[in-house]
Automatic annotation (TrEMBL):
Originating species: Rozella allomycis (strain CSF55)
Domain Peptidase M16C associated: 486-730
Protein name, entry field: Presequence protease, mitochondrial
Subunit annotation: Monomer and homodimer; homodimerization is induced by binding of the substrate.
CC annotations in GO: mitochondrial intermembrane space; mitochondrial matrix
Keyword field: Hydrolase, Metal-binding, Metalloprotease, Mitochondrion, Protease, Transit peptide, Zinc
Length: 989
């Protein structure tokens, strides 16, 4: 992960940086809240106010900043005692109706009744959080009321527990003797989440490191343990934890704080203060270091059988309440592990002992006692001891040799850049980061104080022993560590299935079948209740601006290069994108474009060492990335513009250096570095495979679409299952031949004419000289055409691809109309209506999948159905196909249409990062006028328009279905009438 993302991301193994200054005087006063502290943070033009509710002692933090994308969130510490998944299931159940809003799922229904650009709920190992963001004031107040009522007055119906948690249910509810199976949204979600080897490894690592504490369990729930959870136990847990005294509220942006206080007070003042939950989660936990723990993991389908061991050496380090020490340890993690310049990369990755760092890697400060991990995956069992020796040898060498000051300055430059980098989702990121520390008992104001930490750091950097002393302290002076080793088990999924089957049989024996059916019918009745949705607030269409957002972009030509230039406030950063176009490549050459992309990004150059080139990039830019680019024709979805995309950004005074580094990467990539090419292929192959279990619905949708149009077939080569398999295949090919192919493609592409560039800057005059120099360094000849990739549509295809996962993913794709077609917006409305009024209930609530719905990509001209972590994918395909008959009954009313439009307007008007303003014009030729025309059509669409386009598309024979399913004989029998394609055979498709 790039340094910048590590420093600013609020997710696992990360921390965030802010700065402080003098105290403010703009304080909001409410008689029932007391201000505990406040702090100004000049770097972010933000002020933090920490309040406490006098009666209940609820905590409330407001982050005042000029930002129209307002946030509200509430969190509770929810430390689980076991692996039953209580906090996770409770998070779901909390959003299944409340006292004031007694409808079955106000959360999902508000997704279509508001203009929020983010609504979610998160379960972490030690707390649960409910956040949303919106730019609309009425929306903000509506959603705040729903969230607060949900957390303090939930209905918690038993039937909702059975739907969201787990239940027994006959496959045929009309036959009491039909096969009984497990159902439940969270149950199936966790079966899918724990299907791939990386997720299993991370889960078992957490258990091993913190065994005997509340951090040594899976807060999401282990499927077999979820089946032991009773409804009453969940209710007790909720009553103990969801109380105003234990509540942490956060608001951010242009918020009317007095209104928030007034509403919060009205909702919580009836509660009495209770003893606050302040346990750390490791109370009584005793570190038992220097142990080796062995675990089983699923087999990776693309890994070499003899090299599928994962190994990590994890040290216990500092208490996370020491914010400065945690910051320094994060910096040390970057210096030891990140990129070709780091000692661990050189000794572990470049040696090709394994194919990638272990899933747990680096410094993790998200548990009360932080950890520091080093390890590899894709190694042989006989190399475990060798890896351990290399880790200690590398640490010892780093302790004595230290790190070049240039590398340290490069890391600090990334922090400086992150402080200036403007994002549209700043509020959600800072709220999560703040909550993660606050729940550990860290002063929330101090957790935002980066300036103080940086000042102390720069002072300590004068000490040459700064990092040496810490390496010695944590890794050599009486170190406490554990070694976790996973071995592949070919029967892993089979064993889980047998365990589940055994539990199922035991529960069937304990429960009368008639009782099981009676309970299942109660759930079905609850799912099919006609409820008064008018209880829920809903924005009116007339509250939406008729005029969309415009982003003025200037265009000019420099030689044969077209420049798109947007001038706006960027906080001193210049954002750069370029596209080098090409056409008429063979399938083989097209397959290598994504490989070429990550080689250009990471391989290094002939003019300097890999370490020096990486250091130069980090010291002068926010990173340089290359990627395949595909833009379907706006009038014909069978055609597309292809290219190689380049992106980077830098402080204004580093713009020349940014362009020089991009030129170096394009002209001087070291394709003779055979060993590093092998390393990068192995690493990317491992990462690609591990993404399937979490993004399987996307892979299924892409594979299905690839059967219908040439652009989508090319996209499958670049981002789909074909790409994953192609990477796997390259591992056994001649690296020398791969090098020659990449060198040829690279030298051909960078000589292309008609490059186009996009620059977002606050001072266009100052960058024009740099742009001219950059452009003049490239040739102006066209790429020589080769044999063009041919594609034949395979309408009506049904593909089953078995994979070693516990749950499935299904998709049905239908060829529709392109972006500029008059029916495009009506199809977007249809997708929303089908999801809201039919698919959510049928796929998630009844069929037990974690998610499902319909989507229409107007750019691709594809109408898609999908299911996510699905226990019954064949049933889902039937449901998708049944939408044609469903719509024929004209089931939608004006209110449904209103809600669908709101959802689409929300997406249209969602704030974008500054570097993305105007990017649609640059990438796809979509003008402000085109976007406004689509907006106008959305206002005007009627239900008759929706029914008309539904009749044209649903049921079309120009379609393709795919299921990524369980790799077992039962599944293969179930899909015996489909084309069954093993993963290893995808390369021939």
């Amino acid at each position: 992960m790039p340094l910048l993302k590590q420093f600013i991301s609020p997710c696992r193994r990360t921390f965030r940086k802010f700065a402080t200054a003098s105290s403010p005087d703009n304080i909001c006063k409410h008689p029932n809240f007391v201000l505990k502290a406040s702090q100004r943070y000049n770097e972010y033009k933000m002020t933090a106010y920490l309040y406490e509710h006098i009666k209940t002692k609820a905590s409330y933090m407001h982050l005042e900043k000029s930002d129209t994308n307002k946030l509200f969130a509430v969190g509770f510490k929810t430390l689980p005692a076991d692996n039953k998944g209580i906090p996770h299931i409770l998070e779901h159940l909390t959003l299944c109706g409340s006292e004031k809003y007694p409808v079955r799922d106000p959360f999902f229904r508000m997704l279509r009744r508001s203009l929020s650009n983010y609504m979610n709920a998160w379960t972490f190992p030690y707390f649960t959080m409910y956040p949303f963001t919106t730019e609309n004031e009425s929306d903000y107040n509506n959603l705040m009321r729903i969230y607060v009522d949900a957390v303090f007055r939930p209905l918690l119906k038993r039937e909702d527990f059975m739907q969201e948690g787990w239940r027994l249910e006959q496959r045929d509810l009309g036959d009491v003797d039909s096969e009984v199976e497990f159902k439940g949204v969270v149950f199936n979600e966790m079966k899918g989440a724990l299907s791939d080897s990386n997720s299993v490894f991370e889960n078992e690592w957490q258990k091993a490191m913190f065994e005997g504490s509340k951090f040594g369990v899976n807060s999401g729930g282990d499927p077999s343990e979820i089946l032991r959870l009773g409804y009453e136990e969940l209710v007790r847990f909720r009553n103990e934890n969801y109380h105003p005294t234990n509540a942490y509220f956060v608001s951010y942006g242009d918020v009317n704080v007095l209104n928030v206080m007034e509403y919060l007070d009205s909702q919580i003042k009836e509660f009495e203060e209770k003893e606050k939950i302040d346990e750390s989660g490791i109370d009584g936990f005793e570190i038992k270091g220097n142990e080796t723990v062995y675990i089983d993991c699923p087999v990776d389908p693309i890994g070499e059988e003899e090299k599928q061991v994962k190994m990590v050496l994890s040290f216990y380090t500092n208490p996370v309440k020491d914010l400065y020490e945690s910051f320094v340890m994060r910096l040390l993690s970057c210096l030891l592990l990140n990129g070709p310049a780091s000692p661990m990369y050189k000794s572990l990755i470049e040696t090709n002992l394994g194919n990638e760092y272990s899933p747990i890697n680096g410094y993790d400060c998200n548990t009360p006692i932080s950890t520091f991990s080093f390890g590899l995956q894709g190694i042989s069992e006989g190399d475990v001891e060798k890896v351990k020796e290399i880790i200690f040898e590398t640490l010892e060498k780093s302790m004595y040799e230290g790190f070049p000051m240039e590398r340290i300055e490069a890391a600090l430059h990334q922090i400086e850049l992150s402080l200036k980098h403007k994002t549209s989702k700043f509020g959600i990121g800072i709220a999560q980061s703040l909550m993660m520390k606050w729940m550990h008992g860290i002063n929330p104001l101090e957790s935002l104080n980066l300036e103080q930490i940086l000042n102390k750091l720069r002072e300590e950097l004068k000490d040459p022993n700064m990092f040496k002393s810490r390496i010695f302290k944590y890794f050599f002076k009486d170190p406490k560590f554990k070694i976790i080793i996973s071995k592949p088990n070919k029967n892993y999924q089979k064993d889980l299935d047998e365990k589940e089957s055994k539990i199922l049989n035991e529960l069937i024996k304990k429960n009368d079948k008639n009782k099981i059916l009676k309970e299942a019918l109660k759930v079905k009745q609850r799912q099919e209740e006609n409820e008064d949705e008018n209880i829920l607030p809903c924005l009116e269409i007339n509250e939406i601006s008729k005029k969309g957002k415009d982003y003025s972009v200037l265009t000019k030509s420099i030689n044969s290069t077209k420049l798109f230039l947007r001038e706006t406030e960027t906080n001193g950063i210049n954002y750069f994108n370029a596209i080098i176009p090409f056409q008429n490549l063979s399938k083989s050459d097209l397959s290598f474009i994504p490989i070429l992309s990550f080689m250009l990004s990471d391989l290094g150059v002939t003019t300097k060492s890999k370490a020096q080139f990486q250091q130069d990039i980090e010291q002068h830019t926010g990173g340089i990335s290359f990627s395949p680019f595909l833009s379907p024709n706006l009038n014909d979805s069978n055609k597309a513009n292809l290219g190689l995309s380049i992106s980077s950004y830098a402080l204004a005074n580093n713009t020349n250096k940014m362009f020089n580094l991009i030129s170096e990467a394009l002209k001087s990539t070291n394709f003779n570095d055979i060993d590093h090419i092998k390393t990068l292929i192995n690493s990317n192959a491992s990462n690609a495979m591990s993404s399937i279990s979490s993004q399987g619905h996307s892979y299924a949708m892409q594979f299905a679409a690839s059967k219908l149009t040439k652009p989508q077939a090319i996209d499958e080569l670049w981002t789909g299952l074909y790409y994953v398999r192609f990477l796997d295949m390259l591992k056994s090919k001649s690296i020398k031949e791969i090098s020659e192919t990449l060198h040829f493609l690279s030298s051909s592409l960078i000589a292309l004419k008609d490059m186009r560039m996009f620059l977002v800057t606050q001072d266009k005059e100052s960058v024009e000289f740099s742009i001219n120099n950059f452009v003049s360094g490239f040739g102006s000849t066209s790429f020589k055409d080769s044999e063009s990739f041919e594609h034949t549509a395979q309408s009506g295809s049904h593909s089953f691809i078995p994979l070693p996962f516990g749950c499935s993913f299904a998709s049905l794709a239908i060829k529709a109309v392109p972006y500029l077609h008059k029916d495009a917006m009506a199809l977007s409305v249809l997708a929303k209506l089908l999801t809201n009024k039919f698919l959510h209930k049928e796929i998630r609530e009844k069929n037990g999948a974690y998610g499902g719905g319909a989507s229409y990509s107007s750019l691709n001209g594809i109408f898609s159905f999908y299911s996510y972590r699905d226990p019954n994918p064949l049933k889902s395909i039937e449901i998708f196909k049944s939408t044609e008959e469903f719509v024929k009954s004209k089931p939608f009313d004006p209110k449904d249409l209103h809600e669908a439009k709101l959802g689409l307007f929300s997406a249209m008007d969602s704030p974008v990062d500054v570097q993305s303003e105007g990017v649609l014009l640059f990438e796809h030729g979509i003008t402000d006028e085109m976007r406004q025309e689509r907006r106008n059509r959305l206002f005007e669409i009627t239900l008759e328009d929706v029914y008309r386009v539904a009749g044209n598309v649903l049921g079309s024979s120009d379609s393709s279905a795919v299921v990524l399913g369980k790799d077992d004989q039962d599944s293969k029998r179930e899909f015996r009438d489909w084309e069954v394609t093993e993963f290893r055979d995808l390369i021939d498709q």
